[in-house]
């Protein structure tokens, strides 16, 4: 069977999950090119990488180069990095929605975006409501293969130190042991798991657009 020769687009490749996703795509023979759109460079040099640097708030500047088979959107910020709610919204809602619009405009048929567990446009919690609103707007672009990944707390080491988050992650390692059955989706999840699942979904035949954390793990393991 002839190997597929696809072009993937990543937004958020300088982040934890996006960086792992990039590495996996570079190792995957189905992909001959990986286009990166970001504010800063990953610093990586690879024959598959095509890097486009600029302000993601102004995506129109990338329109001519924003072509490919699949878009992986791993954009996100945190309250500690972006305490202003308006600025937070521009990143966690504004960028993914703008990316979805540009993907639809350029005829890209697969759009995979990282959301969050508990996303709900009617939630009273700002973060959950924002993610829910983002999901609704993305689905509204009617891209043929749209997938919303809702991971629980993401484990792994980030470049910036977040003491509270690090302590909570240590606690979750213990809590994970008792979260079983219907509670399994609340277990913390590794960024490698999310990245693997995103690639599997992009190359599979999944009919459910919303993928919860426990489902992400099963897909990554190849058991679903």
TrEMBL record:
Membrane-spanning residues: 6-26
Pfam families in UniProt: NAD_binding_10
Gene3D superfamilies in the cross-refs: NAD(P)-binding Rossmann-like Domain
Source superkingdom: Bacteria
UniProt keyword terms in alphabetical order: Membrane, Transmembrane, Transmembrane helix
Domain Semialdehyde dehydrogenase NAD-binding: 7-103
PANTHER family (UniProt xref): OXIDOREDUCTASE HTATIP2
Protein name per UniProt: NAD(P)H-binding
């Amino acid at each position: 069977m002839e190997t597929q020769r696809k072009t993937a687009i990543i937004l958020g490749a300088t982040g934890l999950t996006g960086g792992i996703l990039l590495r996996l795509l570079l190792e995957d023979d189905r992909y001959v090119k990986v286009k990166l759109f970001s504010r800063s460079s990953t610093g990586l040099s690879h024959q598959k990488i095509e890097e486009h640097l600029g302000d993601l708030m102004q995506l129109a500047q990338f329109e001519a180069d924003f072509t490919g088979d699949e878009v992986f959107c791993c954009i996100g910020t945190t309250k500690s990095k972006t305490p202003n709610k308006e600025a937070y919204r521009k990143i966690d809602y504004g960028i993914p929605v703008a990316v979805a619009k540009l993907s639809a405009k350029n005829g890209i048929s697969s759009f995979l975006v990282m959301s969050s567990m508990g996303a709900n446009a009617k939630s009273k919690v700002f973060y959950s409501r924002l993610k829910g609103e983002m999901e609704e707007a993305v689905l509204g672009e009617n891209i043929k293969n749209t997938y919303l990944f809702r991971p629980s707390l993401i484990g792994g080491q980030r470049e910036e130190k977040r003491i509270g988050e690090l302590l909570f992650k240590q606690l979750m390692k213990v809590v994970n042991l008792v979260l079983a059955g219907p509670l399994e989706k609340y277990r913390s999840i590794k960024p490698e798991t999310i990245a693997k699942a995103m690639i599997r979904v992009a190359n599979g035949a999944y009919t459910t657009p919303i993928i919860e954390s426990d489902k992400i793990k099963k897909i990554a393991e190849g058991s679903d």
